[in-house]
Amino acid sequence: MASQQPPRQVVGRRAPSLLAGLVLALRLFVAVASAYKPLSDDFLKLVPGGGDADFDIHNGELLSPLLIPRVPGTPGQIKAQEHLIGFFQRSLPKWEVRWQNSTSKTPVSGDRELPFANLILRREPPWTKPGQANLLTLVAHYDSKIEPKGFVGATDSAAPCAILLHVARSIDKYLTQMHDEMAAAGEGGTLDMDMGVQILFLDGEEAFLQWTDTDSLYGARALAEEWENTPFPAMSNFQNPLRQISLFVLLDLLGSSNPRVSSYFQTTHWAYQKMATIEGRMRGLGLLESKPRAPFLPDGGKLATQFQGGSMIGDDHVPFMYRGAPILHVIPSPFPDVWHTINDDGPHLDMPSVMDWSKIVTAFTLEWLDMMEVEPEAQSATSFAPESPRHGPLSQTETAGSILFDSRYTSQKQPPPTAHYAVCSVPDPIPSPSSPTVTSADSASNTKTDQQPITPRHTVAMDTKRHPSSFQQLEKLGEGTYATVFKGRNRQTGDFVALKEIHLDSEEGTPSTAIREISLMKELKHENIVALHDVIHTENKLMLVFEYLDGDLKKYMDTEGHRGALRPPIIKSFMYQLLKGIEFCHKNRVLHRDLKPQNLLINNKGALKLGDFGLARAFGIPVNTFSNEVVTLWYRAPDVLLGSRTYNTSIDIWSAGCIMAEMFTGRPLFPGTTNEDQIIRIFRIMGTPTERTWPGLTQFPEYKAGWQMYATQNLATILPQIDPTGIDLLQCMLQLRPELRISAQEALQHPWFDEYNYPQQQQQQQQQSPLMPEPPRGYSQTLPSQANYDGF
């Protein structure tokens, strides 16, 4: 690690064994799109963690050969290279081994160019063609600093390299078993997206003189640039090797005692939570040897509002991040005391911490590969148990948070949950952990209600015929700035409801978002919009009573999707319902303005409904000039990003298009980190507009004349999972110019939905001819889990 301490801040964005016992603990349902499920306790106990034979500083097979100076271009680095490549050739012959070479001038070499060599190790299914597999990418740099003389860099980064060697060896036999079983069953190449693992040992991370943009990251910069400019064949799943990276996990400065690894990026906080969950469970089970003062990964309960927007520690991930790769940076802050000193050597390593990291990263990798375990009592020693049945799309939801703060595994106290886990999302500025959100800055409401203009001390008349005691309050579902959501039960009917309690401030009165939500939802009654049953007003509390649904689309994708991706028939059903809800809103002159998977609620019959109208607005008379601080960043239309305050219904259509693409891939289409970053990500795919292609572009407040010109990408190439008719609909929704976007009403008549529109025509004919057959099932029928969808 070469960034100076305190950590360099980069602001914004410029430009066997898996042992016979381990294998027998698995049931491989790779051919079926299955839900994410954490590894069982019994499985975690089988995860190998290495020992003295691997990590002894004098004779350990993995670590000791790396505890030497490894300056680029020196004999020590050549020995390190021979050790790394020799390990894979001897022990892991099924891994593909490649070098990526480059040269560069440095501050100490003058006009002479030094060689830099990145080692790329990859294990994909044997039937996979180039550009087809999604790759979990584990990374460490293997070079060391030139000064002080004799510097070894045990934490920086000999120990991380040895940890990755351990991970590769640990997962190798599992991968072999998985590939063999799929091939024997004739399932090889039948999945929409295969998964693999690649390990990068990067050269030239350290600065030769002083950390700058040009004197550092020599190997990372060369590799990222080469991959960006190496296209795959036209029919590949991915455009280039950069796009194959499902997650870029960078290990650095690991091996000292009491490390504190923060969650640096809100966009990958969900992955951090999975790793933190694994650490907490392993500690609770007594599987880790170190005795730190606090967990290695203490930020599992970090809220979205606590991220520092745009700051990070400079490291090898930067060139990849700037090109769109999702980053999980596993580096302690503050840095170890031995950082960049001669004491960063073998004797100063905390060996229990090194071995614990090897276990944690191994378990994280195995869990990422969608291993489905079977409880020991459900299997014999020689056979696998059958898949357990599922009872609905959300019945087996298990979140990272539900394990992270389990008292059996950790003494950590759980902070108030965010709206991500709410049945009815809380309409306030707190977003879900998986995506950045910008809050509304509207100054006034123009909705059709009896309320007066909002002032600092505004109240609204409510119906007080009911009392909060009419409902039994059950478990808490979510909490935001001004509201808390509970699951509840109507004491008279016994029906479940969602209770949103809004605490009234004596100075501010009723929050404007609550007033807006109540005003609009009283008018919006539709099968694809969450119903507001009642509003109960007391002296210090306002309670909104909503219909209860089982979860949201994001949770459904996480639990029932294959790496988050859903099957096409389910996507079509959800998109049809989403557009029906949007159409009703727009016909009633309402903009939702915050459409995202977390705000689309789903019941156990597969019905989808729009929720969280806290940012919604009526449009039309008397004004239609709105705030541009709306819509979660990833789903925000380009005209809003550019500062437009005169947008219309087209902003909801853009969001719907982003959601459609995400359901097919399991990942956001435009996962930006800042407003500028979001604009660039959109232009990279949709093409950079000009005044000729978008008249009036240069008049937007956020327009910049220096934007790089990107060519428009073929959506069919970027999203090969979508059929041609679906691509056409998506293209109609994702138009840069708002006036060119399709309306919700037009989208519902698109040929992609013929199977839903045709039964309506058939029903009309059936009234004239009773002998007509029954129409095929529509979207309103019960929706089974992904694993059973073949029977639907």
TrEMBL record:
The keyword Nucleotidyltransferase does not apply. Residues 409-458, 759-792 are annotated as: Disordered. Keywords: Acyltransferase, ATP-binding, Hydrolase, Kinase, Metal-binding, Nucleotide-binding, Protease, Serine/threonine-protein kinase, Transferase, Zinc. InterPro entries: Kinase-like_dom_sf (IPR011009), M28_QC (IPR037457), Peptidase_M28 (IPR007484), Prot_kinase_dom (IPR000719), Protein_kinase_ATP_BS (IPR017441), QC/QCL (IPR040234), Ser/Thr_kinase_AS (IPR008271). Residues 435-445 have a biased composition (Low complexity). Residues 471-753 form the Protein kinase domain. Residues 779-792 have a biased composition (Polar residues). Its EC number is 3.4.-.-. The keyword Zinc applies. Pfam families: Peptidase_M28 (PF04389), Pkinase (PF00069). Belongs to the peptidase M28 family. Belongs to the protein kinase superfamily. CMGC Ser/Thr protein kinase family. CDC2/CDKX subfamily. When phosphate concentrations are high it phosphorylates the PHO4 transcription factor thus establishing repression. This is Peptide hydrolase.
